[in-house]
């Protein structure tokens, strides 16, 4: 059995609930102060603003908890998941199928994942469909659209959820990464996501469903040798935030799942040997002057830095799958889920709100 690990406790559910409660608490305080002032000014009552605050708070928090925990029924709802080659996409497809959703599980390459494809088919119900879906292929995208449209559950007006779980991690210093690798990473992690969403939005809009974008905490945390991954994550999140504003008029939710650094690094890297070979190819493709300036010793050091992202025990997917499932089944999902450890949350907080010089001192090796 592969070992599972986390770098710290996950308290993301607590933070999600706190985020939900901030506005009701502020509203309760403001309403209590205003109402108490009016009562006292008009001489109607000498009611304490604190007592009014407690009254409003108990009502607003109770309504918020009810609102926060509402769930949709799975019957008659269809979900398309990309990147089921990965542990995350594969596990999510199984879970949503178990919950009663009609699941369309897209594999980037079914021929290279025959064992996984067969295993998912055997584990799933008759509602689960396995599809070839390379999100960088226009042919695959339109073929999938036609198949999904023809195989929606009876009575379903469209697609309830589109989950982008596809990921391709390119590692290496920004100066080293060849343009072909930059383009490939951008095509899978951003351009393909945007194109697939464009094609499927009419189906999602009919259901007033939701788009789920799987990003990474690296979108907010600069990290050496992972610059391409950071850039793609930031682009995806900015694009998703704009899409959310545009889709509000249609009742479509756009949810960003910001996974932890450890989870995204160790879970979605498909082949350790390929990653390391890719790094060596980067070195070979550098011009002689750049190789001379970096030197073979520094290159070897960077290779070791890459290995720590590709080796080690498999990450525990429990928190990520919980966030992904909530994004699908909650009637009123959060705009952003961040299933990360306290250490990662603190690092993102420092990166977002403190001077960059302080971040560099604390976190740059």
Automatic annotation (TrEMBL):
| Cross-referenced Gene3D superfamilies | NAD(P)-binding Rossmann-like Domain (3.40.50.720)
Keywords for the protein's UniProt record, in alphabetical order: Membrane, Transmembrane, Transmembrane helix
Q: List, in alphabetical order, the Gene Ontology terms for molecular function in this entry.
A: oxidoreductase activity
Keyword Transmembrane set for record: yes
Q: Which residues cross the membrane?
A: 21-44, 50-67
The Gene Ontology biological process terms listed for this entry are:
steroid metabolic process
The UniProt entry, under InterPro entries, shows:
NAD(P)-bd_dom_sf (IPR036291), SDR_fam (IPR002347)
Q: Which domain of life is it from?
A: Eukaryota
- Presence of keyword Ion transport: no
- Name of the protein described by the UniProt record: Bdh1_0 protein
Q: Which organism is it from?
A: Fopius arisanus
Gene that encodes the chain: Bdh1_0
């Amino acid at each position: 059995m592969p070992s599972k690990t986390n770098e710290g406790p996950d308290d993301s559910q607590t933070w999600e609930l706190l985020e939900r409660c901030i506005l009701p608490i502020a509203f309760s305080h403001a309403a209590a102060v205003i109402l108490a002032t009016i009562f006292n000014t008009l001489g109607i009552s000498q009611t304490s603003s604190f007592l009014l605050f407690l009254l409003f708070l108990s009502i607003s928090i109770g309504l918020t908890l009810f609102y926060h925990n509402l769930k949709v029924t799975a019957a008659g709802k269809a979900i398309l998941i990309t990147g089921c080659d990965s542990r995350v996409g594969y596990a999510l497809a199984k879970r949503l199928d178990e919950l009663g959703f009609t699941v369309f599980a897209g594999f980037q390459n079914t021929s290279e994942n025959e064992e996984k494809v067969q295993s998912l088919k055997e584990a799933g119900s008759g509602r689960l469909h396995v599809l070839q879906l390379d999100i960088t292929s226009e042919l695959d995208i339109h073929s999938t659209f036609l198949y999904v449209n023809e195989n929606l559950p009876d009575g379903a007006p469209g697609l309830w959820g589109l989950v982008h779980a596809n990921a391709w991690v390119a590692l290496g210093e920004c100066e080293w990464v060849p343009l072909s690798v930059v383009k490939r990473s951008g095509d899978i992690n951003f351009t393909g996501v945007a194109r697939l969403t464009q094609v499927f939005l009419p189906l999602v809009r009919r259901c007033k469903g939701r788009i789920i974008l799987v990003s990474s905490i690296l979108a907010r945390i600069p990290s050496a040798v992972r610059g391409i991954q950071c850039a793609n994550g930031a682009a995806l999140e900015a694009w998703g935030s704009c899409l959310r504003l545009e889709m509000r008029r249609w009742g479509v939710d756009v949810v960003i799942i910001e996974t932890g650094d450890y989870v995204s690094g160790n879970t979605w890297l498909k082949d350790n040997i390929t990653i390391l070979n890719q790094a060596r190819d980067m070195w070979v493709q550098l011009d002689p002057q750049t190789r001379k300036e970096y030197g073979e010793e520094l290159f070897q050091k960077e290779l070791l830095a890459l290995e720590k992202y590709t080796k080690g025990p498999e990450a525990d997917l429990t928190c990520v799958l919980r966030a992904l499932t909530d994004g699908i089944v909650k009637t009123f999902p959060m705009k952003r889920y961040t299933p990360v450890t306290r250490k990662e949350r603190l690092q993102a907080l420092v990166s977002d709100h403190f001077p960059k010089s302080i971040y560099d001192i604390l976190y740059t090796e």
